[in-house]
Amino acid sequence: MREEKDEKDLDFGLGGLFKGIEKIIDLAAEVKKQGGEINKEGKVNFGNIKNGATGVYGFSIKTAVGGEPIVESFGNMKNTPKGPTVEEEREPITDVFDEKNEIKIYMEMPGLNKEDIKLDLKEDLLDVSAKNSKRKYHKEMLLSSKVKSETLIWDYKNGILEIKIGKY
Fold first, then answer.
1. Alpha helices in 7-146 (DSSP H)
2. Into how many domains does the chain fold?
3. Which residues are CB-contacts of 167 (< 8 A; sequence separation ≥ 6)?
4. Are residues 72 and 123 in the same domain?
């Protein structure tokens, strides 16, 4: 696994967009060739927008050897028709493992206590939200299989939320 961090002002024009896409394609090709995972994250300072609000962005590219790359973004920056915005709520980086008898989900949500986290499971839709005075996280996931809601167990330690749900 290779991890990189950046902190800089981003060019949200077409030039910056194309440079970013080119880098993602290069990273995806490298991951596909080697198998594994690459994470990239950073912060963007908007200066005069929202009183110097800080946007957190990131993406994770994963694949098995010879498999197709899967790109997943996380953070609190959203692209809207009016341009990028910084949301108060962050989307956590998430890993999902669909095993024979259960689905395991791991989410990175630092800065919380266990009582700050709420899970809602309705059929194959899992909604995770967490909030305290400093941080807000939210992730809604469509699960790959039908699950038994009564088997849902979860724990939160050292910034990592671990969820296990039995499958039918």
1. 14-34
2. 2
3. 100, 101, 102, 103, 145, 146, 147, 148
4. no
